[in-house]
Amino acid sequence: MKEFSISEEAAKWFKDEMGIESGDYIQFFVKIYGGIPTAHPNYFLGISVGESSDMAVKRVVEGVTFYFNERDSWFLDEFNMKVVKEQEKNEVDYLFD
């Protein structure tokens, strides 16, 4: 499994933009059509708020748990995923390498 990270600035952005608080959960899930573009051809990311009992990979940043569940954890097998907030923009970027 490759690296999965969320910067502190990106976590703060999620809190501000999505109205979440410390103790909340953000799930990344794999979609086939539409969503956040990725390095995987024909696959996109979706985001939902809520806790799942089958968390496979998780990172806690700024008190928020960001995770992939068991079904979608394969997504991190080939690429590192970093979620960062760009200084010039008021949005987050998803970086894959």
Structural account:
The protein is mostly beta strands. Helix content is 11%, strand content 42%. The protein contains one helix and eight strands, in the order E-H-E-E-E-E-E-E-E. It has a five-stranded mixed β-sheet. A three-stranded mixed β-sheet has the order 1-7-8. A hairpin with a 6-residue loop joins strand 3 (36-37) and strand 4 (44-49). The mean pLDDT is 88.
Outline the secondary-structure elements.
Blueprint: E1 4-6, H1 8-18, E2 25-31, E3 36-37, E4 44-49, E5 55-61, E6 64-69, E7 81-85, E8 92-96
Parallel strand pairs: 1-7, 2-6
Antiparallel strand pairs: 2-4, 3-4, 5-6, 7-8
Mean pLDDT: 88
- Tell me the helix content: 10-25%
Distance linking N and C termini: 13 Å
Order of helices and strands: EHEEEEEEE
Structural class: mainly beta
Task: Enumerate the strands of the largest sheet in spatial order, edge to edge or round the barrel.
Answer: 3-4-2-6-5
The biggest sheet amounts to:
5 strands, mixed
Segments where pLDDT lies below 50 for 5+ residues?
none
Rounded to an integer in angstroms, the radius of gyration calculated over CA atoms is 13 Å
Quote the beta fraction: 35-45%
Summarize the structure.
By secondary structure, the chain is mostly beta strands. It is 11% helix and 42% strand.
